[in-house]
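Homework help board

Subject: predicted structure for assignment chain

Our instructor gave us this sequence and asked us to write out the predicted structure in token form, then describe one feature. I got the tokens but I'm not sure how to describe them. Can anyone check?
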Amino acid sequence: MGSASACSSTRSASSSPRTRVSGRSAKVARMPLTASILGRLSKASDEENLSLQGWLDRCRELAARLGAIVVGEHIDDGVSGALKDREGLRAWLADGATGRADILIAPHTDRITRDGLETAVRVLELVEGNAEGQPKPVRVMTLNGLDSDNDNAFRLQFVIEAELARAELNRIKARAKERRVNLAKAGRYPGGVVPFGTKVVLVEDEQGRRVKVLAAREDEIPLTREAARRALAGTSLRTLAREFNSRTVPYVAAAGEQHAPRPHGKSGTWGATNLMETLLSDASAKFALDTATVRQLILKFAPEVDAVGKPIPKAKRGGGRPTERFLRGGALICGGCGRPLECDEKRYKCRSFHEGFPCDAPVSIHAKMVEPFLTDEILTAFGDVPYLERVTSVAGADQLEAAIQAEEAAQAALLAGPDGDTLAAFQAAQEARRTLEAAPEELITKVVASGRTIRSTWEAGDADQRNTIVRQALRGPAVIRPSVKADRKRATIAERVEFEWAIGDYSGWPA
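My token output:
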């Protein structure tokens, strides 16, 4: 690089051992060269991985041959080169941009970047001295012979190697994806996070090799089935997720195995998204749910599939975070006009006048008054009685699952000993399975004991769950009266809120 060479020659010319100053000889101190080293490993280093130490030693030797003092060693340990904002890379580039280092050294271009031209351009700006606030150009060198002092040759080769590194990364990703697909097709564990409801076990394959496969985790399978039944019955995934979290249902497995998909930045907690993806996962379909239930879940939550038949979850709706007011949606009505009250962050209000409807006595009531009042009334009356819930299953799902297993057993018998009897048995099992699959699917909803009380369900539930309990408890909406009575006296909360219980001799919800 011309500018770098000029810088070097200027330093060399001004560093003669002696010069004449006012007729007397004086020594002129020479500023030593400085170097900064960058290293990167895709996998974190350990005692068996000696690549990092080998690179560092060779980079230090190169700096020593150049007479440079190493002022910085920046290592991105276990970080992909595709990341543009790596900590080590930032510090290495900053050493050049601030003038702290005269020479930037790296083992190879692919240790600097695998994102192609974007990072390569940042390095070339340092070579030219064009980075913001940069006091002088820097020299960039690699162990495989790249040197920015060779101006044109360096530019071309550096850009080519950066693009080749990006292409190689894409090939690595493609091979890894193909490997995971092939392992999954073979029934092997493809690596990565462990799906909820499963665990990794070692088994012997046909060649006697020890291989990893996924197996059912018996303590989690019932939770997946419960979530599927209640989701098909109409319980929102947000309600289920909040309840699972309150029941301390673990999202992270034992022994540090993390489930997939990863929750929203909060390890170990459920949300509507990861619960839906769990229900639609291949692991749930294989170990926890029958074929008919999986089909109904796909129709409910993912009516579309991708090119390989994998369910595509419905897109999230916009509009921000929903309100947490549980008496919304017509649970309260105005005593003056009978129209539902609308809610904001603090109050329930009659909006008839603003919407062009007549109202003799528009009302407004603070949420901190009416919500605790109805909560106390409901829990005092019914808090300790059992809570019943609706669960939905697919009629004939058990028979279909048994038919599929019978067909698989008949096929194995046919392959082991083909004859007329095994062929007839296989054909009969195949026909029985086809008949059950052709039958129209019918959803059956049952009311079952949840094992919880009204109080525990209320306390663990979200706004949707509480709204459901209010509607089940009251015979119609609660009527809100004005805050001032006819005699000009202020009404109490009990006088303002009029309601009627839906049932007398309560034995559980829903009826």
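Reply (TA_rk): Your tokens look well-formed. For the description, you could write something like this. Confidence is low (pLDDT under 50) at residues 1-28, 252-266, 316-322. That's the kind of observation they're looking for.
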